[in-house]
Amino acid sequence: MEWKYAIGISILLIIVMSVAGCTGSPQTPVAIPAPVSVATTVPQTLAPVQTTVPVTTKAAWTTETPATGHPYSKTYSFEGTGDYLQEFTTTSDGTWVYRMNYPGEEIFIVTIKDNRGDDIEVLAKEGGSFTGTKSVWLKAGSYYLDVAADAPWTITMSTA
Predict the structure, then answer these.
(1) What CATH number does residue 113 fall under?
(2) DSSP assignments along 53-101, one per residue
(3) ∠ at Cα 18 (13, 21), nearest 5°?
(4) Could you give the number of structural domains in the chain?
(5) In this structure, is residue 9 part of a structural domain?
(6) Does a structural domain hold residue 22?
(7) Bigger pLDDT: 124 or 77?
(8) How far is residue 55 CA from its own chain's centroid?
(9) In this structure, are residues 109 and 70 in contact, taking their beta carbons and an 8 Å threshold?
């Protein structure tokens, strides 16, 4: 009878050893990435209000007298050198006409952004001098005029 116990124990040991080997080969060490600062892992939300842009402005953003026969018309004019960001507000839905002049030889980009900083319309995207007009329909609200330039420029915007 002892030989039956010996055979039973041997079978159990064989089963235990074979099951222990069924879990697979030892795991390969997992590479752990180096710590990364939070600033590089969290997407940054850009808000035009918080943007500081160097600019040499020759004249302030001004409101001009409404055109004769158009008591509700508005005209805003400004000029500067280099990059510039200007907030403006429309009080009613309507078409705005942008007249732009850039005699420079480098980049000139003018973009309208909404109050979240998202692009609404690209008014100019040039790699050299530019003189042009573009009309854009805007709903009442707050917007930003974002200018990227390497030389002096002028922009006039008015209601149609």
Answers:
(1) 2.60.120.380
(2) ---EEEEEEEEPPPPTT-TT--EEEEEEES-EEEEEEESS-EEEEEEEE
(3) 130
(4) 1
(5) no
(6) no
(7) 124
(8) 20
(9) no
- How do residues 26-77 score in pLDDT, each as one tens digit? 554 544 544 544 444 444 444 444 444 444 444 344 555 555 555 567 888 8
Q: Which two tokens stand for residue 135?
A: 């009309």
Q: Which domain holds residue 116?
A: 48-159
**Is residue 117, in this structure, part of any structural domain at all?**
yes
Model pLDDT, residue 51: 43
Here the tokens at position 101 are 């002049």
CA distance 134 to 15: 83
pTM of this prediction? 0.58
Q: Judge contact between 9 and 17, C-beta under 8 A.
A: no
Do the domain assignments include residue 105?
yes
Token output for 143: 């917007």
